[in-house]
Amino acid sequence: MSDSHLFKRTIHKHEVPSEYLPEGNRTIRVYLPPGFQDWISYPVVYCQDGEDFFNFGRIATHAQRLIIEEGWDPFIIVGVDVDKKIRTSEYAPDGERYAIYTRFFTEELIPWVESHYPVRNVPEQRILIGDSLGGAVSLSLAIAYPNLFNRVISLSGAFYDAYFAQIELAPTLEQIRIWMLIGLQENEFTTDRGTFDFVELNRRAFQLLKDKGAKSHYVEKDGEHKWGFWQNELPEALGAFLGPAPMEFTL
Q1: Would the pTM count as exceeding 0.90?
Q2: What is the number of other CB atoms lying within 10 angstroms of the CB of residue 225?
Q3: What CATH number should be reported for the domain holding residue 23?
Q4: Which stretches are annotated as coiled coil (predicted)?
Q5: What is the tally of structural domains in the chain?
Q6: Degrees, nearest 5: CA angle 125-84-204
Q7: Fewer CB in a 10 Å sphere around the end CB: N or C, the chain?
Q8: How are beta strands 194-196 and 189-191 bridged, if at all?
């Protein structure tokens, strides 16, 4: 790639202040596309496990290549970091910190990003993405805040019972478009809540979402519950919403 400013990969780190989080702030990473101009508005991808998406998923590297080499329209990526020790507490609907984390995300993070960067502020142009619990909480946010989000990418979503309860309570999920991936070798994965068959959980989630009217694209393929699998699938996942020919989702 050229070293000119047009092709420069730009990533900023910020501490977003919070009145909800006991720590008082949260670290985020913001990728700006090549040729970024602050007078142009851009679609935005919000990543749970932000540090992992940038370091292990190499999402900024993928984005840079897709925009420069494959002609995708540019977009901004916001990675929201998480402390792994409290991750389940923040991401699971029955977790102690879930309520304060989701309030931070929707009432503080989104307004902060939209006041500092020229990202588009409509649900169709805000994409939520996450791996494992991050994928599940991305869907959870879209269910709880339909006025903010309706585009979701779930990489091997860890759909525990609390997520199914949330899906079942929703009167309709017709507004949601979700791209789901699960690896066939994820059928016996040990977590801090026990050992789960994530293949079966994702199949169940996919069917329940269909029953609620959500439009889904569901992919099963050989893969384990790790970044070596997810990293390679990111271009296809992002392409469903951001590529030159966005996917037509169906029931």
Answers
A1: yes
A2: 22
A3: 3.40.50.1820
A4: none
A5: 1
A6: 60
A7: C
A8: antiparallel
